[in-house]
Amino acid sequence: MTPMFKFQKRNLNSDEQDYVMRNWRAWAREDQIAPDDPDWAVWLVLGGRGSGKTRTGAEWVLDRVRRGAKRIALVAPTLHDAREVMLGGDSGLLRIGFRHERARYEPTRRRVVFPATSGRDPAIAYLFSAHDPDSLRGPQFDCAWGDEFCAWPDPEAVLSNLRLGLRLGAAPRLCLTSTPRPLPVLDGLLANAGTRLTRSRTYDNAANLAPGFIQAMADTYGGSALGRQEMDGEIVRDHPGAIFARADIDQARVTQTPPLDRILVALDPPATSGETADHCGLVVVGRRGEGREADAYVLRDASLPRAAPDIWAERAIALYHSYEADGILAESNQGGEMIETVIHQIDPDVPVIRRHATRSKRGRATPVGLLYARGRVHHVGTMEALEDELCAFGGPHQNGSPDRMDALVWGVSELLLNQTEPRLQFL
Questions:
Q1: Which of 65, 161, 180, 226 could form a disulfide with 136 if both were Cys (CB 3.0 to 4.6 A apart)?
Q2: Exposed, middle or buried by CB within 10 Å (0-12, 13-18, 19+), for 117?
Q3: Phi, psi angles (nearest 5°) of residue 284
C-alpha cells in the first residue's frame, strides 16, 4: 500500500474505505495479481517473510470462486497452518472479500463453504495437510492453493497427488506461495513451460508491517544467506562440489564477539598491482579456547580491490592495532620477505608470521570446511562478499581468485589446526 494510497484512503468515509480495501485489484502490487496469459498451469509466488504471499493466495482463490470454481484444495504444511494462516490469519480467506462473499468454515468437515450465487451450488474449499499426501488421492478440484510448499515434508509427493486431482473445469490451475528453498522440486517447477513466476521482498510490503520490523530483521539477518532467503525471497544455493555450506555458516553465526585468547590479521596480498591485479585478502580472525575445545571467530573482512603494497600494508597494520592483534599472518610463497619488509617499513614493531604453502588452495581449504561443518568457526555478524566467495569455491560458479577465502583459511588454520599440542618430554 503506497503512501499516496493511504492519503487517498483517509479522505473516504468508513463504508467507502471498506469497499476500497475489499477491492483487491485497486491496491494490490503487480506481483500479487495472477498472470493474464491463458497458457499457465502453475503460478509460483516466491517472496520473503511478510511480503504479502498469503494475501496473494487468498485473493486468488476468491477470484477463482467469482469466476465459477466449485471445488478448491487448500494445502498447508499442517492442518493447524491451514486453519490459522490460510483461513483465519489477517490475510486469510475468512478475512477478505465483500461481506456478501464471506465464506463459512466447517471445522468438523475441514472445509470452507462460500455463499451460493445465482441459484448455483456453493463453492467449497477443502483443507489438507502436506504431512498426509495420500489424503489428496481421490478428490478432484478446479483449482488449488498450496502455502509454504517449500516447507512441506515431501513436496514432490504432495504435488504429484495434488496435480493429478486438478481435473475439473476448463483450465484447472494451481497457485503455490512460499519463501523459497533450494529444492529439486522447485527447480522442476521453474523449468516447466506451464509455470509463471512472480517474486517479492519483505521490503515491498513495508507499509503493512509493524514499525521497526524491517529494521529489526535487517539488523539480524541483513546480508546473510538466511536474510537473502527469508527477506529477499532468493533461492540461495550451495554449489555442487563447494567446500563451504551456507547452512553451516548461518548455523554458527553470532552477533557478539566473546573474549578471545588470540587474534590474527590474515593477509593474502596480490602478486601484482594495477587494474588487472587480484583483490588483497584481509580477514581478522580470533580464537577462544585451547586444543580441540577451541573455536575460531571471523571478526572482519577488510579485503581491498587491486591495492598497491603500501595501501594493503597500511590497512593490515591499522587492523592489527584496532583489534589489538597478536600478529599479521601472511603466506611466504609469493614474496613473503617483501611482505614483511613493506610492513616493517611502516611499523617495525608489528609481528609478521610467515607460513609456506605445501598444498593447493583446495587442499588447505578442505580441513577448514570441516571445521565449519562441525560448528567450530563463527562469523561475527555478516560478511556477504566473503561468504559468497567461500560458498562458491570448488563449485562450477567460482569466479576469479578466492583471495578473501584464502586469507580466512590461513587465519583459521593457524588458530585451530596449527596449535602446538602439549607433549611429555623425558629427561
A1: 161
A2: middle
A3: -95, 125
